[in-house]
C-alpha cells in the first residue's frame, strides 16, 4: 500500500545525519520501501524556545505492514538512534511520526492517524506537500487548502 507518510524531525546530535540515517533504516525494514522523500527543511522549535532549530523531512513509504507494526518499526529506529527525550516538547535526537496511513483513520492508545498536528505544523505540511501536492487527507481535507491556512513559521527548505 502506498500513500503512507512519515514525518521525521531532529534537533540534537547532528540532525541532518539523524534524518538521513533514519530514512535509510526505514527503507531497510522488511516490507517497507521508501518511494519518495522531501527535501530537508529547517524550522524554529515549536515548544520551548531555548532549544536548537529542527531539521524536518517527510517520506512516503510503500508497505504491507499494518499501522501498528509500522509504528513498532518506527519506534525501533528511534531506539537504535539513541532517542532521548528530555522534556515535554523538548529537544530530541530523532522523532518518527506516522502522519497518514492511506485512507485510514485510526484512534487508539498508541496511534492517532491522520496525525492531529498536521494542519497546524508548517514543518510537516510543507514537506508533505512537496512530495504529495494532490493529497487528500482523511478528515483534514486537501493539502492545498491546509497549506493556505498555515503560515510558514520560519520554515526554510534547504538546498
Ligand atoms: N518543532 C519543530 N520545528 N520541528 C519538530 O519536528 C518538532 N517536533 C516536536 C516539537 C517538540 C513539538 N517541536 C518541533 O515534537
Radius of gyration: 14 Å
How far the N terminus sits from the C terminus, by CA atoms, comes to: 30 Å
Structural class: alpha+beta
Low-confidence stretches: none
Order of helices and strands: EHEEEHEEEHEEHE
Task: Give the overall average pLDDT.
Answer: 96
Q: What would you call the shape?
A: globular
Approximate strand percentage = 25-35%
Describe the protein.
This protein has 159 residues and is an alpha+beta fold. The chain is built from four helices and ten strands; from the N terminus they run βαβββαβββαββαβ. Strands 1, 2, 3, 4, 5 and 10 form a six-stranded antiparallel β-sheet that branches. It has a two-stranded antiparallel sheet with strand order 6-7. A two-stranded antiparallel sheet has the order 8-9. Strand 6 and strand 7 form a beta hairpin. The longest helix is centred in the first third of the chain and has 14 residues, at 15-28. The mean pLDDT is 96.
Keywords:
159 residues, two-stranded antiparallel ribbon, alpha+beta, 6-stranded antiparallel beta sheet, 4 helices, binds 7,8-dihydro-7,7-dimethyl-6-hydroxypterin
Amino acid at each position: 500500500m502506498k500513500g503512507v507518510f512519515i514525518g521525521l524531525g531532529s534537533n540534537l546530535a547532528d540532525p541532518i545525519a539523524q534524518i538521513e540515517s533514519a530514512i535509510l533504516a526505514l527503507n531497510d525494514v522488511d516490507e517497507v520501501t521508501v518511494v519518495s522523500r522531501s527535501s530537508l527543511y529547517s524550522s524554529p522549535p515549536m515548544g520551548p524556545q531555548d532549544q536548537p532549530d529542527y531539521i524536518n523531512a517527510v517520506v512516503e513509504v510503500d508497505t504491507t505492514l499494518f499501522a501498528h507494526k509500522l509504528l513498532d518499526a518506527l519506534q525501533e529506529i528511534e531506539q537504535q538512534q539513541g532517542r532521548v527525550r528530555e522534556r515535554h516538547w523538548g529537544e530530541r535526537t530523532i522523532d518518527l511520526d506516522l502522519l497518514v496511513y492511506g485512507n485510514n483513520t485510526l484512534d487508539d492508545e498508541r496511534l492517532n492517524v491522520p496525525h492531529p498536528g498536521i494542519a497546524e505544523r508548517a514543518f510537516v505540511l510543507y514537506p508533505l506537500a512537496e512530495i504529495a501536492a494532490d493529497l487528500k487527507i482523511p478528515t483534514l481535507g486537501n493539502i492545498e487548502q491546509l497549506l493556505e491556512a498555515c503560515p510558514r513559521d520560519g520554515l526554510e527548505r534547504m538546498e
